Amino acid sequence: MHVDLNLLTALDALLEERSVSAAAARLHLSQPAMSRTLGRIRDATGDPILVRTGRTMALTPRALALRQEVQAIVQRAHAVFAPERELDLQKLDRTFTVRCHDALMSALGTRLLLAVQEQAPHVQLRLLGEPTGDTDDLRHGRVDLEIGAAEPALPEIRGELVGQDCLVVAVRRDHPLARGRLTARRYAQALHVIVSRRGRLRDPIDDALEALGLRRRVVAAAPTSAAAIHFVQESDLVVVLPARVCGPTLRTVGLSALPLPLDVPELRIVQLWHQRYESDKAHAWLRGHTREIVQAICRGER
Fold first, then answer.
1. Secondary element (H or E) of residue 220
2. What is the distance between the terminal CA atoms of the chain, rounded to a whole angstrom?
3. Which of 64, 90, 168, 203 could be 257's S-S partner, Cβ–Cβ 3.0 to 4.6 Å?
């Protein structure tokens, strides 16, 4: 049987985008041309691949089963025909989109910008904060590298543990908790603000307190650590933050960092990227720099 291998590229785009128009835009084709290609794919596979569900399109069970295999085949084909070249950072002209929590961005951003300016002067960085909800930005190529606490949620997303940080309680230097030993009970009796981009008023700290028969009063959720730090500066509120990542900022604004009197796991810092960039030398260079910088931050190096 004659097989048109060009259909594989189109099928990969359709499985990834789940939309004829989006797949057409990705492959620089007209929508009618992509619709005709989808018809040929349906004839070749004997399966509809995409079916309408209300206003959107959904993958059939057969399409879901084929997705990873088709993607792997297309990536291997691109690797076969892509010439292997040495990475010339002085000539590299590329824009990388990096997304991470605002606290980590403050600690990481300046060092990463300096490294890029020194080694790859034509590279631009688009630095984004975390969104309020889950997205498919890594899968769709809208974000090149994401750094946070989340583990890979999809099989095509690669992940690497790049650092760990402990948690501390940030308070004003003249706050009552700053005097004497901070116990779990004294900590629970304070007024608390939580850093949550989704506005959650509960986090694992509450579980640790309840295991000791204690409860705390959370009066607010702040969208960023910068906002929470400002609230703590101006009130008797307290906030739990990563020690190494936020340490320089806390010292700059004159806040005290007290040991958290609870048994909670260290904060894991993970960087994520789509598997399409696994062998991309420029992307590997970017990942290497973020890894080194985060590790230095977690060692307390300025």
1. strand 217-222
2. 63
3. 168
Distance, in Å, from the CA atom of 31 to the CA atom of 9, rounded to the nearest integer, reads 15
Residue 45: both structure tokens together: 């596979």
Report pTM.
0.69
Structure token digits, residue 222? 């702040």
User: Which string of DSSP letters, residue by residue, matches 51-104?
Assistant: EEETTEEEE-HHHHHHHHHHHHHHHHHHHHHSPP----TTT---EEEEEE-HHH
Asked whether 114 and 249 are in contact (CB, 8 A), the reply is: no
Selection from 195, 199, 215, 219 nearest residue 207 by Cα: 215
How many CB atoms are closer than 10 A to CB 130? Answer: 20
112-139 pLDDT, tens digit per residue, is: 999 999 999 999 999 998 877 677 888 8
Cβ contact 7:43 at 8 Å: no
